[in-house]
Each structure stands twice: as structure tokens, then as C-alpha cells.
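Renewal narrative, Specific Aim 1. Our central claim is that a sequence can be written position by position from structural information alone. The example that follows is taken directly from our test logs and has not been curated for this report. It begins with the C-alpha cells describing the chain, in the order in which they were read.
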């Protein structure tokens, strides 16, 4: 996007691509479907960013979700909007997004050179004058845009190269760490439920015994802990809590549509209606089959106990557990599994109006290399496209 934007200003643009093929990370976003943006309005969109969107706001005023959607529609990529405002290509193929970007870049005479990892910036008198690749090739330039991504999913090429180049040029780095990442839990409860996906549940974060956030949606149990959209959204907060050293827990409300009174009435009704059946059978009306033995074990209820033998205390334990199934969080997965990186080049050293460096003249930034991150749902990709658009147009000005 940065290269396309610069070429639209009639600049002579060269895109140095580290990998043998371009946009590998874009190819895997949205499970290969590419959730490129979200249809939310500006105010709601900005709330999804960790800093409230203060830094990204000027870029969004220049190039926002409606502009991005129009951009791809004009370039023969029909789009569709799904639940939660998530926007995807109608084909459900990220390759269509990549093809449109590369086709337009070539049409605009952008020179795309693959297998050309950049090693360092060439600086002269406080300004960037070009770059040097790992092969020792020198590319002179009036402007340079660092759009090297973060440090998550390093197999796609995002190995923090841009961080090192920017630091060598005098920029400050906020320590990169995983964001939008699965979490690890203590004990073997999650492992027993491995592969089980829950929909329409409410998940809360407790840090030091205090509730910090609550999100409604889908989640998944894994062999190491928890994943899925709700967990990824909460992972930034969970990571911060763990870093602070506070006891960190996840609470799952398995029946958010029922308050305690209605849930108790429901349980009591089932116990009376199926009183001669065993609990492992009765609970099929309330829980996924895989969860029943875990539920009964954690609450000290025999699976073979008949419904009409369940005590009031056991019924209360069951009700409380269904509304507050707790798991202790022991850690977050690494950068190799994180959707995005939290941290990067500090926004204090970047002009939000142009994405220009405040440290080095004619150096610009775009995308995940910048210390900005948002919830899952298309928000981060929109930020990448928007900053790329702004950086590209601004970087082309010194070339005129």
C-alpha cells in the first residue's frame, strides 16, 4: 500500500521484498481469508486500540475503512461483511487481496525485487539516503519507508529487522512482545477439554482478584490452555497482568443468557424431570458432552449420582461453576504464535500526520513496526493499510 501510494504521486518506487514471495503474512490472516478491515464507525474503531487510537486517528481521517473497501472493490475484489463488522473478500481467499495489491503496484511501475533483505539504512547528515541489502547491494533513495512488520510469525519474514535498523538510526524501541495470542493455563483441565469450541460464552479477566474486563463470543480449549477470538482479544490485558506479577485468572460464564435465579430454576427443573437418570446424562441438556466429566469432577459430584439425590449444596456448586468456571493463567504463547506484536518504534518519535521520523529526515514508517496494536477483528490490518497510504504519499514529496 505504501509503494502504491508513493507511485500515485509519480515517484520512482522500488519495493525490496525480503522473502521469495510477497505478502506471506497477509496470506495467513483471518485463517487464510484475510479480515482486511471492520465496518465499525470511527469512534468505535478507535476504542479498539490500546492507546485509544490517538496516534492512528490522523491516518484514519486520510484513509479509513470505507476508502479501503472502495480501493479493493475498484480493483476487482468483491467484499463481504460478516458478524461483528468483519470485512473479507467475497471469495474467502486472501490471495485475491494480495493479487490486487501486486497487480496495481506493477501497473504503477513499482519495481518489486524479491529475495532482497535490507541490512541497514544509509545515513548522511541526519537524513536517510538509501539502504544496503544483505547481498551488499546499495539502493540510493530520496526517501525510505520501513514497512518490515513486527516480530510475530517469524516464518513469514517478520523477524524484527526494521527494529534493528531504526534503533541503529537513533530511534527508541518499546520492547516487542506477543499480542493477540493464545494463553497457557495451570493444571490439566484445559488439556482434558482440548479441541472443544464454545460459542456465546462470556469470558472475564481477573487480576489480583479484581475483574478487569469481560468479552462475549467464541473460545477454544487447547492442549496448553485457551485460544479463540475472545481469548485473543483479552490476551493483551492478560499479558499485562502476568507481567505485573498479579494472580491472573480467566472466568467463563457458560450460561450468560441466564442470571443465577433463572439458571437455578433450570437446573432444579431438569433434576426433577429426569430424577431417576444419572448426572452424566442429565447434564447433556446443559453442557457439551466433553465438558460433563470435567464439570462433575471439579464440583465433587459423582457422574452416576441420580438427579433426585443431588443435594441443595451440590446444586449450588453446579450453578456457581456454570456462571464462573475459573482457570488460572500461567503465561502467554510466544511471538511465533502471536497474530500481532505489541511494542515497536515508539510513536513519540513519529509524526502522526505523515508517518515521518522525527529523528531521521526522509525516513518513514508504516504498519506493525510502529508501537500500535488493537483487538482482533480487522482493526490492525486497517491500521497497516492506513499508515502505508499516508507514509507513501508523504514519502513521495521529497522525490518531486
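The sequence written for that structure reads:
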Amino acid at each position: 500500500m505504501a509503494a502504491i501510494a508513493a507511485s500515485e504521486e509519480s515517484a520512482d518506487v522500488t519495493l525490496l521484498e525480503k522473502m521469495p514471495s510477497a505478502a506471506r503474512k497477509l496470506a495467513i490472516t483471518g485463517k487464510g481469508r484475510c479480515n482486511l478491515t471492520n465496518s465499525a464507525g470511527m469512534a468505535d474503531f478507535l476504542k479498539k486500540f490500546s492507546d485509544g487510537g490517538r496516534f492512528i486517528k490522523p491516518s484514519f481521517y486520510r484513509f479509513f475503512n470505507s476508502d479501503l473497501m472502495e480501493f479493493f472493490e475498484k480493483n476487482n475484489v468483491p467484499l463481504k461483511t460478516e458478524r461483528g463488522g468483519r470485512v473479507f473478500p467475497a471469495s474467502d481467499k486472501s490471495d485475491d487481496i494480495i493479487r490486487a495489491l501486486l497487480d496495481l503496484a506493477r501497473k504503477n511501475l513499482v519495481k518489486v525485487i524479491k529475495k532482497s533483505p535490507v541490512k541497514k539504512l544509509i545515513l548522511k547528515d541526519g537524513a536517510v539516503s538509501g539502504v544496503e541489502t544483505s547481498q551488499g547491494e546499495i539502493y540510493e533513495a530520496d526517501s525510505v519507508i520501513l514497512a518490515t512488520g513486527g516480530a510475530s510469525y517469524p516464518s513469514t519474514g517478520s523477524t524484527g529487522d526494521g527494529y534493528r535498523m531504526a534503533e541503529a538510526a537513533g530511534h527508541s524501541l518499546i520492547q516487542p512482545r506477543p499480542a493477540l495470542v493464545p494463553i497457557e493455563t495451570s493444571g490439566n483441565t484445559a488439556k482434558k477439554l482440548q479441541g472443544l469450541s464454545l460459542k456465546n460464552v462470556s469470558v472475564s479477566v481477573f487480576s489480583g482478584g479484581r475483574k478487569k474486563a469481560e468479552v462475549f463470543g467464541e473460545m477454544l480449549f487447547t492442549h496448553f490452555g485457551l485460544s479463540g477470538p475472545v481469548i485473543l482479544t483479552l490476551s493483551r490485558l492478560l499479558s499485562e497482568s502476568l507481567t505485573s506479577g498479579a494472580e491472573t485468572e480467566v472466568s467463563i460464564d457458560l450460561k450468560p443468557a441466564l442470571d443465577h435465579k433463572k439458571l437455578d430454576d433450570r437446573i432444579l427443573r431438569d433434576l426433577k424431570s429426569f430424577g431417576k437418570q444419572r448426572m452424566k446424562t442429565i447434564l447433556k441438556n446443559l453442557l457439551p458432552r466433553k465438558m460433563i466429566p470435567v464439570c462433575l469432577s471439579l464440583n465433587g459430584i459423582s457422574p452416576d449420582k441420580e438427579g433426585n439425590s443431588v443435594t441443595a449444596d451440590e446444586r449450588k456448586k453446579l450453578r456457581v461453576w456454570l456462571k464462573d468456571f475459573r482457570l488460572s493463567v500461567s503465561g502467554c504463547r510466544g511471538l511465533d504464535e502471536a497474530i500481532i506484536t505489541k511494542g515497536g518504534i515508539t510513536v513519540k518519535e513519529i509524526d502522526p500526520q505523515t508517518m515521518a521520523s522525527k529523528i531521521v529526515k526522509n525516513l518513514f514508517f508504516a504498519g506493525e513496526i510502529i508501537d500500535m496494536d488493537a483487538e482482533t477483528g480487522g482493526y490492525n490490518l486497517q491500521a497497516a493499510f492506513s499508515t502505508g497510504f499516508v507514509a507513501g504519499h508523504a514519502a513521495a514529496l521529497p522525490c518531486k
